[in-house]
Amino acid sequence: MSRNVNGSIPCRPLVALLDGRDCAVEMPILKDVATVAFCDAQSTQEIHDRVLGEAVAALLWDGITLSREDLMKFKALKLIVRIGNDTDNVDVRAASEFGIAVCNAPGYDVDEVADSTLSLILNMYRRTLWLAKAFAEERQIIGPEATREVAQGCSRIRGDTLGIVGLGRIGMAVALRAKAFGFNVMFYDPYLPDGVDKALNISRAVTLQDLLFHADCVTLHCPLTHHNQHMINDYTIKQMRPGAFVINVSRGGLIDENALATALKEGRIRGAALDVFEIEPHNPLTGPLKDAPNLICTPHCSWYSESSCRELREMAAQEIRRGITGRIPDDLKNCVNKDCLPARMPLFPSAPIGSLGAASLAGFHTLADSINGVNMGNPAFMPYAPGFLSAMVAQSPVSIPAPLPTMLESPIVANRPASVATSMGMKQMQHMAAQPNVPQHPRNSSTPKSNCSTVQDAVLSAET
């Protein structure tokens, strides 16, 4: 085990993967700046108290939700990175009030989602899935009459109009691919500047109704907000061309599934392909879509490939690293609530003031490197589960500085003496000056809130 020049054990911030176990991709990126622990939890009730008290950064997929009440349980948390595009499972407004930066990892799946979209569109037009099912059922298809019967509904692509709702990264990638297949491409996106249509040689619809009226196939590539919930509903379906196709690989809440099921049964919509649903995980045996004809459903996997998954995890880990080695939120690349947070000093200063002094200025204390779980390098890779920590410590071949919980006098930024806070360029609070050593929970009502009244529109317009 390495030691500092003064012989003290190096102290690194604790980063927790809240709802997973595999840290093989993240460890090479973080191992020299942080101790990584996995929790494999589905709620904060399953997270070890040590993690709740010491974790300064958290990684999470979509398997756990962090509400205001959940965020209050973390005593040192300063950074949350969602491993994915959206932050729907994090209360971003509450995190902003508590001074916690929230980040996502956009753009990793542009090619995969665009390719999946075209695959679903081709299935609608060429009915590949249904033809494969007919062949698997050993139906004999001999002669033009049998072919016409089994392939009924197959359509020519060239000359049809593809309507794209939302021309962000993925929407633009779909547009470029669709043009190669012979589609006339039209898009609706009120947030893009003029001239995008001319640059891409595609058409622009002034209103959503205009796009629905002209499109033979409508594909959705916009984020879900409270403004566009059930964008595709009974009213807008009636504005579509009779027999149009609908594709959704964006967010399930964009479509009213009851209205879509009715339109499919009545033939107003010729076919639909969905990778996302209002309630996930989707059960094809229940819900309004269970008996709908001409429907393709996939389990929210259009984003996935071996390459995209690895790139996603690397992006998330790099964001954690930027937060640890740089300044929050200034050095974060994908912070969705940056405008709601004050400029801050480095999370973990690297000045040569000793390991414990650095940890004190950083506002947290961490487990020492002497706690070794799975030997994946230094720092330790530690699975946290009730009862596991004590057993792991007991088996550790290296002694642990005692008492570990008292390595620091002040576990969080808000409890530091006024002199330390002032030296870090932080706003001095009156109650700190009067009672600098009185412990105070970082999430209580006296914590100064952000002057940002709402989460910025950037959160709502993040690329899907």
Question: Could you characterize the architecture of this molecule?
Answer:
The chain has helices spanning 27-30, 49-54, 68-72, 92-97, 110-126, 128-136, 143-150, 169-180, 196-200, 208-214, 234-238, 257-266, 306-325, 355-362, 388-395, 418-423, 430-434, 457-460, and strands at 14-17, 35-38, 55-60, 79-82, 101-103, 161-165, 184-188, 203-204, 217-220, 244-248, 269-274, 295-297, 381-383. With 464 residues, it is α/β, with parallel strands linked by helices. The protein folds into 2 domains: 14-107 and 307-454, Rossmann fold (3-Layer(aba) Sandwich), CATH 3.40.50.720; 110-297, NAD(P)-binding Rossmann-like Domain (Rossmann fold, 3-Layer(aba) Sandwich). The longest helix is centred in the C-terminal third of the chain and has 20 residues, at 306-325. The two termini are 44 Å apart. Residues 1-10, 350-442 and 444-464 have low confidence and may be disordered. Residues 427-464 are annotated as: Disordered. Pfam families: 2-Hacid_dh, 2-Hacid_dh_C. Residues 23-337 form the D-isomer specific 2-hydroxyacid dehydrogenase catalytic domain. Residues 442-456 have a biased composition (Polar residues).
